[in-house]
Amino acid sequence: MPPERTAPAPAAQRGQDVIHNIGYRSYEGPRLGRSYARRALFTQSLRGAYGLGRSAKSKVLPMLLFAVVCVPAAIIVAVAVFAKQKELAVGNAEYVLMLQPVIGIYLAAVAPQAISLDLRFKTTPLYFSRPIERGDYVAAKYAALSAALFVFTAVPVLIMYIGALLAKLDFGEQTKFLAQGIVFCALFALLHAGIAGFIAALTPRRGFGIAAIIVTLTIPYFLINALQAIPGPDSHVVGWLGLGSPGTLMDGIQSSFLGGDSQFPYGAKPTGGEGIAYLLVYVLLTVGAYLLLTRRYRKAGL
Amino acid sequence: MFHPTVARLTYRALLGRRRALLLCALPALLIVVACAVRAMNGADDQVTTQLLGGFALATMVPLIGVIAGTGAIGPEIDDGSVVYLLSKPVRRTSVILTKLVVASGVTVVFSAVPVFVAGFVLNGNSQQIAVAYTVAAAVASLAYSALFLMLATLSRHAVVIGLIYALIWEALFGSLVSGAKMLSVQQWSLALAEKIAGAGAEITSDVALPAAIVLLLVAVVGSSALAGQKLRSLTLAGED
């Protein structure tokens, strides 16, 4: 019955009118709170980094890159098994550093997807209307990026370890290499996730974020490599130059503290004082990137 | 065939806002490094070749090519505003050609010109090294712009694919598998540089000059034609 035909309610009854109850029910179940929301954001971002829970098309690139980063490790192991080598041809940290272009592209594909898209589709205010706070969001996203990158680099290292044991190489030595490799992967992941996360948070455009991350990761690396080749073998400049890019920074750290071979020209290693400088710059960069990322989300409106 | 309005819009999209800053940062870095190396090391032909070949031509030119080539049409296809352009009575091939001209012009300005300046700063164009690398960078700019413009019409992940080509195929694969160098824009343009520079300049290419020119022409014409063809039957995809 159309509403205008109803007779106006008597004045006495009007006061008792209530807003129509159209069946919404209040929620009385358990509230899972901040830590649950933070954990959920972490796991969802981590799954998203490998395309899990997303469309089939977006699984292609991460999985392909993951395969690209794992296959050479399997080949190195296979060669060691069949040629009965005494040790693997490539060290763990060296392997990660060699595949930096692939890692860089993976990071450039993943970080904007995890961070920029929230800005582009304006979902961040929705997150912040939940119990989680700015710090929780940043921590969850940063942890997810680091974890995704850690898995990406540590799995090949693990493959090489298992392969080395199958090839009956020395167990104690290989376990030591594995521990060093895992520490290196963790340090590598923390630094690179911080840098990529911060750049991704600066722009809502995914394409722009991808390009900016690749440029920041590769251009300084190639530049420092070209510059390091210029001075002679006995120059001290090589070590200091290495501080100039994330890739060479990680290289210096692994060759001075984690027992790897240096990729610098002439196999130069950072000396004692330089090694400390490498650690300092590493800590500064990682902490700085995290603080900048937190600062980026300070404004409520974004 | 050249459409001034399309050119103006593309130019504004390419150099608007922060994109221009990013594009400026790379050449500025190259020139600053060139000045620093010259001040510390003096003029040296080998160092010049290393810096211009190993850094400028190998990483800077492809990256600027990716940014300019995909940026010329990618964002428009991404946000769907390309339909307004395509609904105008402008031939699709002339849209592509105009965008190619603008993209390669921007790439040349931001890569070949700084290479020329850096070459002069580094060794004062001894043995024609600066000119050789400038020509190589200009030719490579054209080829990269055409290739990445085509990629941007074919796939929404053009930036990633372009970067994979520039970093993994040319840098990583090219150094491991010598056959991969035959299909590398960098090697084709190096063939030109090899011809121009003096014999002592140590610029070497794995591709012979005639083959390089033919391959360059095929790459530019072929990818522009393919891009025009693709633009005729463009379907707009949603966000994944």
UniProtKB/TrEMBL annotation, chain A:
Descriptive protein name: Membrane protein
Organism encoding this protein: Streptomyces cacaoi
One Gene Ontology cellular component: plasma membrane
Transmembrane segment boundaries: 60-83, 103-121, 142-165, 177-201, 208-230, 275-293
Keywords: Membrane, Transmembrane, Transmembrane helix
Pfam families tied to this protein: ABC2_membrane_2
GO MF annotations, alphabetized: ABC-type transporter activity
UniProtKB/TrEMBL annotation, chain B:
Chain coiled-coil ranges: none
Organism listed in the record: Streptomyces cacaoi
Name used for this protein in its record: ABC transporter permease
Keywords: Membrane, Transmembrane, Transmembrane helix
PANTHER family: INTEGRAL MEMBRANE PROTEIN-RELATED (PTHR37305), MEMBRANE PROTEIN (PTHR37305:SF1)
Acetylation among keywords: no
Pfam families registered for this protein in UniProt: ABC2_membrane_2
Regions that span the bilayer: 51-74, 95-122, 128-151, 158-180, 207-227
GO molecular function, one term: ABC-type transporter activity
Lineage top rank: taxon: Bacteria
GO cellular component, one term: plasma membrane
